[in-house]
Structure formats: structure tokens, C-alpha cells
Amino acid sequence: MSIISEIMQHNQTFVKDEVYRDFETTKFPNKKMVILTCMDTRLTELLPKAIGFCNGDAKIIKNAGALISHPFGSVMRSILVAIYELGAEEVCVIGHKDCGMSGLRHDSFLDKVKEKGIDQNQLDFLKSAGIDLEKWLTGFDRVDDSVAHSVTLIRNHPLLPEGIKVHGLVIDPHTGGLTTVEIQESVTVQL
User: Fold this and answer.
1) Which domains does the chain have, with CATH numbers?
2) pLDDT attached to residue 184
3) CA Rg, the chain, in Å?
4) Is 22 part of any known ligand binding site?
5) Residue 40 annotated as part of some ligand binding site
6) Which of 34, 132, 149, 171 could form a disulfide with 59 if both were Cys (CB 3.0 to 4.6 A apart)?
7) For residue 15, how many other CB atoms are within 10 A of its CB?
């Protein structure tokens, strides 16, 4: 049985047994926050638990590396929609240690692309169309620098309204421990 068959079979039971009632909320984030984080599977349940959030508390945007690669791309648009249309008042970029985008190099990535059957002519066409695959397919060296870059891009975006706080954190995917990169207010932690 394929994974999609398992998904559909599980979903029928999920709906029939009304399990969805445990997750009912509105489209508006309860904590008025939008989070940009990585798509890493280790963060799916760990991140919300590590920050004390439940279903409905935040808008969560996930991509490879929690990176904003273009100031007018889909990630930034999603952040702005969360602010203007859904009431978010704070943005938090949360990268993580041991990220797959750390050290990603375009040359080894493109080798894998070719191994999967993508022809060099297709790559040449993309290059001739002005797509910089080398830049697009290169990750970062330090997660702190990557988070700081995304935070700076958001803070300086011409459509970001005044008063929106933008923070940057790094989570350890093994323990859930957080470290700060960029915070727009003082943080006190009492143990």
C-alpha cells in the first residue's frame, strides 16, 4: 500500500470519529504571531511544544532553512498576509542547529539533479532565462547568520508596518533548547 492510501484510510477514520474537534480553532493566530521556521521533520511537534504553543496559536510558515530568498517571494508575502489579514503583531524566525541547508552547495546538489534525469540542456535553459541556480541552490555556513539575515530583511521590508516586532531564534532539534539571535525587547527567564 502506498503512503497516500494510508493517509486516505486514516483520514476517513479521523473524520468519522470526529477527532478534528480536538483541533478546532479560527484562522486568526491566538498569540498574534507568525513564525518562519525550517521544514525539518524534527521540528514538526518539537517546536510548538518547546515554545508552549498549541494548535491555533501562531501562523507557521515552513521552508528549507527558514530562509527568505527574495523580499517579494512567497515567504515574505505569507508573513505580510499574516500581519495585514490575520492580525499577527510579531514575527519570529526560528532556524535550527544541524540544518540540511547548512553547508548546502549548488554543485553537489546539481549533480544529484542530473543523476535523477534532469538534462544539462534544461539547466542551461534556466541559466539563459536569468535563473541563478548557483545562488538559489547554495545554503549557509552559520545558522545564526542566516536567521539574522532573514530578520534584517523582514525588519527593513517596505511593506512592514511600524510597530511589528521581529525576532530571531535558533532551536536545538535534539533538546528543544532556544538561543536568541535577534530580539526586539529584553527577555528575562526565571528558572
Assistant:
1) 3-99+141-182 (3.40.1050.10), 105-138 (no CATH)
2) 76
3) 19
4) no
5) yes
6) 34
7) 10
Confirm if 124 and 93 have CB atoms less than 8 A apart.
Answer: no
**Angle at CA 83, nearest 5°, toward 77 and 86?**
105
Tell me the C-alpha to C-alpha distance, in Å, between residue 183 and each of 27, 93, 122, 152, 179: 26, 10, 43, 11, 10
Residues of the chain short of pLDDT 50, as ranges, are none
Query: Are 158 and 80 a contacting pair, CB within 8 Å?
Result: no
What pLDDT is stored for residue 190 in this prediction? 57
Q: What pLDDT, on the 0 to 100 scale, is given for residue 43?
A: 97
Note whether 163 and 169 are within 8 A (CB).
Answer: no
The pLDDT value recorded for residue 182 is 82
pLDDT tens digits for 41-56? 999 999 999 999 999 9
The residue written with cell numbers 517596505 in the block is 158
**Residue 102: predicted pLDDT:** 93
Beta-bridged to residue 178, according to DSSP, are 171
Phi and psi dihedrals of 32, rounded to 5?
55, 40
- Is 92 assigned to a binding site? no
